[in-house]
Specification:
With 393 residues, the chain is an alpha/beta fold. The protein folds into two domains: 214 residues, Medium-chain alcohol dehydrogenases, catalytic domain (Quinone Oxidoreductase, Chain A, domain 1, Alpha-Beta Complex); 166 residues, 3-Layer(aba) Sandwich (Rossmann fold). The chain is built from 13 helices and 15 strands. Strands 3, 4, 5, 6, 7, 14 and 15 form a seven-stranded mixed β-sheet that branches. A six-stranded parallel β-sheet has the order 10-9-8-11-12-13, with helices on both faces. Helix 6 links the parallel strand 9 and strand 10. Helix 4 crosses helix 5. The longest helix is centred in the C-terminal third of the chain and has 13 residues.
Length: 393
């Protein structure tokens, strides 16, 4: 089969690889019909490259149809399913407490990491990902989300990651009717998080330096800002001088405007993998500009919710300010299955209240995927969200 594979720092290519096979009775094999490209995929070809191996299959946002079902998978050939990016068993202590991203059955204990993830480096199990013609789905008996046949893929595929990650971020921000929230970063997660917060009744300020991202958010009633001190001042004025009740950081480790962090990341990338991993695991390598701005902006007694991925073990934080402002912080990998019952009715609603029909900017074949990665990385050609369609000719 064809698959998008990691071939080195800043390099992916479409290659022919072995077809996946059933390995456990709870497995299923799906023919992938849609698979998103995520900002986290860009981390894998840059900051997290030391944890990747040549030939690793990329992608953690897939959906498709079952072509082979393990005896204990609870699925049958032809079922249409969305596959969460985190692999969870559904029955361990963590899963029983809806902490699916911490599943004790699939934890990558040798890396002291949480649940295994599809297509996401040795930190999370080096499990082959879903930017491919076919995908083996471990623990399909619990993880696979069955969906109907009436609606197109774009209504469902984001249940794999984007929608639940954004929903959890907004829930962790604890905003509702009459509250205010600023969203840093209007990529796919930030776009959906901003729309969700507005759907919940909050006033939403979206912050991003890229004009087309701001334009997309504005179409959905978001008040948009370019970022920087002027934007912080404007948002404070709009919130009676206090700042918003919450801030959602949907940027993560590669924020713009963080030259020192950028230099550290670049230097780490020049080291051999073992040395680079050691730096990642002991040093502060994140670009923290967006997070520090969030700490500055949020009102006293407010909440910061972090959906953007961070990777530095010792990234410096302004604890005096956090303590003095009495700021609450919540974060973590999304517990995808926890939120599906909330989200499925919204994506199937004919009125499309979250605007999922207005997110994909580029649909590409597997052969076109490497160029789409470049466009996404460089924010070229108004690229905000790429979906790969492996069965496209």
């Amino acid at each position: 089969m064809k698959a998008v594979t990691w071939q080195g720092a800043d390099k992916v290519s479409t290659e022919t690889v072995d077809d996946p096979t059933i390995q456990e009775p709870t497995d299923a094999i799906i023919e992938v019909t849609s698979s998103g490209v995520c900002g986290s995929d860009l981390h894998l070809i840059s900051v997290l490259a030391p944890y990747m191996n040549e030939g690793d299959i990329m992608g953690h946002e897939p959906m498709g149809r079952v072509v082979e079902a393990g005896a204990a998978s609870g699925l049958k050939k032809g079922d249409r399913v969305v596959i969460p990016f985190n692999i969870s068993c559904g029955h361990c202590w963590m899963c029983q407490h809806s902490l699916y991203s911490q599943c004790e059955t699939t934890q990558v204990k040798e890396k002291e990491s949480g649940a295994s993830l599809l297509g996401f480096s040795s930190l999370y199990g080096s499990v082959p990902g879903g930017q491919a013609e076919y995908l083996r789905v471990p623990h399909a008996d619990f993880g696979a989300i069955k969906v109907g046949d009436e609606l197109p893929d774009n209504r469902y595929v984001f249940l794999s990651d984007v929608l639940p990650t954004a929903w959890q971020g907004v829930k962790y921000a604890d905003v509702g009717e009459g509250d205010t929230i600023a969203v840093y970063g209007l990529g796919p997660i930030g776009q959906m998080g901003a729309r969700m917060a507005r759907h919940m009744g909050a006033r939403v300020f979206g912050i991003d330096p890229v004009p087309e991202r701001r334009e997309m958010a504005a179409r959905h009633g978001i008040e948009v800002f370019e970022g920087g001190e002027d934007s912080i001042g404007e948002i404070r004025e709009l919130t009676e001088g206090r700042g918003p009740d919450a801030v959602l950081d949907a940027v993560g480790m590669e924020a713009h405007g963080s030259p020192v962090g950028g230099a550290i990341q670049a230097a780490a990338g020049l080291l051999p993998d073992a040395a680079a991993q050691k730096v990642m695991e002991t040093a502060g390598v994140d670009r923290l500009n967006a997070l520090h701005d969030a700490i500055d902006l949020v009102r006293r007694g407010g909440t910061i919710s972090i959906s953007g991925v961070y990777g530095g073990a010792a990234s410096p934080m302004p604890l005096l300010t956090l303590f003095d402002k009495q700021i609450q912080m919540r974060m973590g990998q999304c517990n995808v299955k926890k939120w599906i019952s909330d989200l499925l009715p919204l994506v199937e609603d004919p009125s499309d209240p979250l605007g999922v029909d207005d997110l994909i900017t580029h649909r590409v074949s597997l052969d076109e995927a490497p160029e789409a990665y470049r466009k996404f990385r460089d924010k070229d050609d108004h690229c905000i969200k790429v979906v790969i369609e492996p069965q496209a000719s």
